[in-house]
Amino acid sequence: MTLVYIALSIFLLILLINTFKVHPFPAFLLVSIFAAATLGLSIDKIATTLEKGIGDILSSLLILITFGAMFGKIIAVSGAAQKIAAVMMSWVGQKKIQWAMMIVGFIIGIPLFYGVGFVLMVPLIFSVVYKYKLPAVFIGLPMLAALSVTHGFLPPHPSPSALVIQFNANMGLTLVYGFALAIPAIIIAGPFFAQFLKKIPSQPLQTFISEDLPDDQLPGTFNSFFTALLPVILLIATTFIQHVFTLSPTVQQLLIFLSSPSVVLMIVFFYSLFSLGVVQKLKMDDLMNHCTQAVKDVATIILIIAGSGALKEVFTQTGVSEEIATSLRALPVPPLALGWLIAAIIRICVGSATVAGLTTGSMILPLIQSTGTDPNLMVLAVGAGSLAFSHVNDSGFWMFKEYFNLTIKDTVLTWSVMESIVAIVGLIGVLLLNLVV
Questions:
Q1: Contact in structure between 207 and 294 (CB atoms under 8 Å)
Q2: What would the pLDDT profile of 6-28 be if each residue is shown by its tens digit?
Q3: What pLDDT, in 10s, does the model give residues 360-390?
Q4: What residues does each domain of the chain span?
Q5: I need a surface site. Which of 215, 290, 345, 389 has the fewest CB within 10 A?
Q6: Sign of CA dihedral 232, 238, 242, 245
Q7: So where does this one cross the membrane (predicted)?
Q8: Omega before 156 cis (within 30°)?
Q9: Region label for 297, one of left (φ > 0), alpha (ψ between -120 and 50) or beta (otherwise)
Q10: Rounded CA gap, 53 and 251, in Å?
Q11: CA distance 335 to 342
């Protein structure tokens, strides 16, 4: 009955939002209460569970989204996004801009968490879309597919990193195999799949769009690229220093602080005020007004993500993921395919790729040891499965929907299908690698 209750909860959520036009935030809370009651959560724990779910997801995303929105707005109004878009277009041309965006997404996605990469790259995507009158989903999806693949497949992202340790896999081999799988997955789910999405109607979030400035008012190429890429530079540099050099405890603690994505975004926000504000002779009052408007524009997104966190926490507290994993472990399926399947079903039911990956890891570990399955490939199988069919219970689904201003139906046809393609290509790649390694 667990799967039936989960399906009913998701159906009710879609009904409330699509048919009755209820705002997603109260709809999520109502459905979370329904799910908690039907899945057997004690009534005295429902309120605290909802609060914990909202608090947990906002604790990791609130600073990222708000500072990311303000940083993105400065990138837009200063003309930096316009400059970057023009330079990239001059390098690769309009016919290859999708591939350029995909490569940028892949490079950015290796060191950055998905949420950070998303909010940082959105201004660039929208600048290209508006300046050259191109379909938003067609241009944006390849970059976001690359961000998603790196999040699910490659260390140092949370789930694959934890699985490498849990399975006693080899980090270097996992990365090599991960790159071998990531490239075809990104190409198929990104530029190839996006060819069929040119007619998807999308009017992206206006806060990251500004009127074109004359060329003599644009910031320089180096200033634009350096400021936009500074989060990546800081994260790579702090991580590299920690792993290569022997540091005193004080310096190590300082680097841990400076390598936090939230701290990095705060640093680059204040730097952008100088490099793209003061240097460009923009008034601080005007910049702050732009930043305030940007936060207002993403407030709805923050509420929706908070609601999805409440539903995810209900599923977590009621033991849905463990129950599903336990019931599936006895299936007569090859270990790698079974790891993928368990992660995929938990992902579809719970919504979080990280939860799906880590839950599957704890359940599949004895099977790895008893069958002698390659642990490096199992990390990738579980990682691929954890990306399957993102939908209304996943915060990434709502970020894509709200930023690109899509209907739920079109978000499923684009985002959800893209994530499923990534998962399936990943599974096929793992099974093929298993034949040769």
A1: yes
A2: 989 989 998 999 889 999 999 99
A3: 887 788 888 888 899 999 999 999 999 999 9
A4: 2-205+220-436
A5: 215
A6: positive
A7: 29-47, 59-79, 99-122, 134-154, 174-197, 218-242, 254-274, 294-311, 337-365, 377-400, 412-436
A8: yes
A9: alpha
A10: 34
A11: 10
Kindly report the pTM of this predicted structure.
0.82
Distance of alpha carbon 243 from alpha carbon 102, whole angstroms: 28
C-alpha–C-alpha distance, residues 152 and 419, integer Å = 10
Return the structure tokens found at 247: 């540091």
* Residue 326: count of CB within 10 angstroms of its CB: 12
Q: What is the pLDDT of residue 156?
A: 67
Cα within 13 Å of Cα(126), Cβ side: 28
**Percent composition of the chain: helix, strand, coil (DSSP 3-state, to 5):** 80, 0, 20
Which of these, 113, 186, 6, lies nearest to 395 by C-alpha position? 113
pLDDT exceeds 90 at position 337: yes
- Interatomic CA distance for residues 175 and 33, integer angstroms: 41
CA distance 124 to 225: 11
Over residues 253-266, mean pLDDT:
88
> Residue 37: helix, strand or coil by DSSP?
helix
Residue 126, Cα to own-chain centre: how many angstroms? Answer: 17
Q: Is 47 exposed, middle or buried (0-12, 13-18, 19+ CB in 10 A)?
A: exposed
**Per-residue DSSP letter, 278:** I
Q: For helices 24-38 and 43-77, what crossing angle results, to 10°?
A: 150
Closest by CA to 416, choosing from 434, 436, 437, 393, is 393
Place of tokens 């190409």: 187
